[in-house]
What does this fold into?
Amino acid sequence: MDARAIIAGLRDGKGASRESLEWFADALSDGRVSDAQAGAFAMAIVLRELDADTRAALTLAMRDSGETLAWDLCGPVIDKHSTGGVGDCVSLVLAPALAACGAYLPMISGRGLGHTGGTLDKLEAIPGLRTDLSETQLRHVVGQAGCVIASASDRIAPADRRLYAIRDVTATVQSLDLITASILSKKLAAGLEGLILDVKVGSGAFMKDLSEARGLARALVDTGNAAGCPTSAVISDMNQPLAPALGNGLEVAEAVRVLSGEMPESALALITAALGGLALFQAGLAHDIETGADAVTAAIRDGHAAERFGRMVAAMGGPVHFMDNQARFLPEANVIREFVAIRSGYISAIDGEAMGYAVIALRGGRRVETDVIDPSVGLSSIVSLGQHVTAGQPLLYIHAGRSEHADQAADILATAIRISDDPPDLPPLIHERIS
It folds into this structure.
């Protein structure tokens, strides 16, 4: 095989064979392909795009560039992936809820990306908890709790790890084919029997347009199924934060509130039930989506989901009694400041992306990979679309480590929330289901 010939074939629109993609993925992993060749490979895919079969072949080649997990458990091994949004702490609620319903979830998650928070960063707000687990440790946690949320090891899809870094510096990140292969190669390496995808659309998501979100959802679903993993997706709304808080420790607190049954009608609880119902139905643990959603809601209401989350936290090195008094363990910011409305009216628009960048200004996210995150900072008690407010009423609270950081966040938030005289039309929580 020759890297130049493979790149030229993609560049000229001739595609690539399964064997050539397998060779290229292996060569990415062991260094036989240079950075220049990897960048040219990515650019050729961006410019020419791949057909469905070739996209699936690339995904499997990247999956098979490293180790894959195999399981022998007494229930289906499934997972969920979100394309990213603000206040999106669904995984912290959904994983233990599904485990309480008889599924097993070895959830390989990531760090914050751009304006969105990362599930691993959120979990690590819990003192002592570690997400960088060995395979032996990962299997132990799954055995103890039925679920684990951990980082991918260097041995999982190493071709994607290298290609992702190169895409970031070669303007090839925004490619439906490469996004699909990147997401699914890591997920499929976990040995899944089913996958649910939550594709976000709106001001707080990477996909702002419904047609773009639909295209990504369809590519992910078709590729996952072609790779032999039953895959379905929902397109859910991200025109406002999913939870009324942004920031790692604050989002953990919101997830615990839902797990404790305090917010049964919140958007976070409702999207958890919707995704969980689809997952349980697809995995054969529910007769239909509605029955599955009811089972997830029941697991939260009766405390079984909270008990599973507590088990997972303890097995990952966190406090044994975390669920008994989470406020005792989660960090608290030095500065807490009101951000108030300058006029009365209805909340008609929320710029979720701006809110995400406000959290980064507070040091709750990363500008560069080496930045250290403050898990105590963020935004809380955020107003919701359609809510009526009066002048001087808090729209949210800013949690900061220092006053000057709170000032920086307030400057970003100045135009993030729009207040109008008339109430807005509220978007649906779930726009579409794709299977």
Q: What stands out?
A: The mean pLDDT is 93. The chain has three domains: 3-63, 78-324, 331-420. The longest helix spans residues 210-226.
